[in-house]
Design goal:
- The protein is mainly α and 55 residues long.
- The chain has a domain at 27-55.
- It is 47% helix and 0% strand.
- The protein has helices spanning 4-7, 32-53.
């Protein structure tokens, strides 16, 4: 019996640009929370340094 997930077609989009990849890729796995928190904290730290250390 054939596996339906492997033989099913990809969903279509207007320009044919929509693709879904189910394969895992090699690389660093980063939590979405970290992706949001780190840039926001860097912005806050830079604002604090601007306010406190520049006369």
């Amino acid at each position: 019996m054939a596996d339906k997930n492997k033989s099913s077609p990809l969903p279509s989009s207007g320009a044919g640009l929509l693709r879904f990849f189910e394969d895992e890729t090699k690389g660093v796995k980063v939590s979405p929370k970290i992706v949001i928190v780190v840039p926001i904290s860097l912005i806050v730290v830079s604002w604090a340094m601007d306010l406190l250390f520049i006369p």
